[in-house]
Amino acid sequence: MLAVASFCDWLAQTPISLLIQTVDWIIPAVQSVHIMAIAVVMSSAVLIDLRLLRLAGADQPISAVARRFLPWIWCALVVLLVSGSLLIMGEPRRDLLNPVFIAKMALLAATILMTVLFQLKLSRNMIAWDAAAGRNPVPVVFAIASIAFWVAVLACGRWIAYVAHG
Amino acid sequence: MLLPIAQWLQNTGVARYIAGSEWAFPTIETVHVLFLVMVVGSITVVDLRLLGLASAHRRISRVSGDVLPLTWFSFAMALVSGLLLLSSRAVAYLADWPFRIKMALLLMAGLNMATFHLVTYRRIGVWDEARRPPAAARLAGAFSLAFWAGIVVFGRWIGFTVQ
Question: Residue ranges per domain, chain A?
Fold first, then answer.
């Protein structure tokens, strides 16, 4: 904890951090970009999950829906990494010494892992999932878990502002 | 003239509860953020299709059919949560200029959507499979993206300016 606190204090003195701290509009602007990228990630994930649950796009194979939306998830995650890093750099203690932020990162890691596993499954094949059409619990469980995890990450993200940090 | 309504609104039992509770506002706000990102993200899928920039191989009517139920549900949830948030400090929000701009942009987005569905969409049979739909459809998509981006920006700004 002490090492993290020292790192935060060092980070807060760097030129980029001072710039973000002093120019009023940077944080709202970066947060807006962050939110727009969240919109892309969440919608893409949910649309894949709705297909897995056979609630939308059931006229196409799962692989078709996954191939359309997975690239958007990865690209948006890159934007989230960059914008998120800028937000951390601007207010290091607010994030790095905040239990809610730590929880968000843990949940995010788990969610990204799930997405990677799904992507790997896609590259092998999804024919079995398509053929099973409602009788296989795995895609259904995955879809529900996926939505739950993404929502949890988002909720933690919003609550950072409301929980006291170190 | 909206001021008396705002004053009445923030004096209702629900509004007072939200204003007085430590957890109610953040929780409702989280719900609001969840559903607004779903609205923005799902509309972006349709808008990019209208601009011929994504899913161009898939019929516009199919893309909308897949996505719009999600959009409408999310919009309803965002609207209800938004009204609850607004009610807790209605007078302050009404006076906040990013809030006003956000409301104006919501209206513009709604008008754009109504025009598209009631007018432009009538001739969908002709260009449903087109990779690049006619100008009216492309404009609807472009305006939609612009309005919703604005709604996100000014919506975020409210948190920094409201008294």
Answer: 2-162
